[in-house]
Amino acid sequence: MFRKIACGLLAIAIAFGFASCTSTPSPHLIRISVPDQKMLVFEKGVEIARYDVSTSKFGVGDRVGSYATPLGAMMVKEKFGGGQPSGMKFKSRRATGEIVRPNAPGRDPIVSRILWLKGLESQNRRAYDRGIYIHGTAEEWSIGTPASYGCIRMRSRDVIRLYDEIGVGTRVEVTNSHFPAALVEGNGETAPAQQFNMRDKPPGTPAPAAAPAPVPVQAAAVPAPARSTPARKHPGSPAAPNAGPTPIPASRG
Question: CB atoms < 10 A from the CB of 252, how many?
Fold first, then answer.
């Protein structure tokens, strides 16, 4: 009798231990800005990577048939494509065996890796059923601009790195606001890990020294121009244009 009770308690303890392991929260966080078309990846509050992405060309939202990118907090529910070569084409989340090279003319399949998202809020509750993914795209030329049909697209090399870095259960936050400028400066390519927290400055950062005040300079006296008799103009001749500085054309960006 005692042996049966002991075995039962041991089984319960083992089951509880497995449950505790499976419920361990992910140390990673993914944040995506729709206006910036950028993704920041954090591990325990420290940025470890940043990527250009492409969200929907139909805007944001979660309505069925809208092809829009949902906003708010989601999570990586499932992952597909581990071990497949870069450019592997997927159909219904299954590898087809066809490799599509980046920017192949007329091709726009899902390639390389898939991270299937599940909504955690009312504003994105349909994300999983709509098949909203983070995935690789063959149309890498469009990355950095809204061009998808609801998913978050990435370059193949970037989505493979992301796939290998984060696990199922990772929180994904999509915002319709800009990131702080300090977090998105750069040339748009994948950046190395940045060791700073999400605050603008780490504690204890000294304030920048104030610039010295300019020394006033007394303007020299300018002599008045000598008076001269204006030359007579032929009747009907146009007036001389008013002289002034040449305007500088505005930059086109």
Answer: 4
Structure-block tokens of residue 128:
């999983």
Q: How many CB atoms lie within 10 A of CB 128?
A: 16
Query: CA angle, 108 as apex, 102 and 109 as ends, to 5°?
Result: 90
CA distances from 165 to 106, 240, 245 (A): 31, 71, 58
CA dist., res. 120 & res. 149, Å (int): 21
Between the CA atoms of 194, 24, 176 and 87, what dihedral angle is there, to the nearest 10 degrees? 70
Query: What is the model's pTM?
Result: 0.66
What is the rounded distance in angstroms from the CA atom of residue 67 to the CA atom of residue 166? 26
Distance CA 90, CA 86 (A): 11
State the residue for tokens 């990846």. Answer: 41
Place of tokens 């990586």: 76
Half-sphere exposure of 107 (CA within 13 A, CB side): 19
Confidence of residue 28 (pLDDT cuts 50, 70, 90): very high
Structure tokens given for 120: 């955690």
What pLDDT score does 116 carry? 98
| Residue 163 DSSP SS3 | helix
Residue recorded with tokens 């005692």: 2
Size of the chain, expressed as the number of residues it contains = 253
Q: Is 154 helix (H, G, I), strand (E, B) or coil?
A: strand
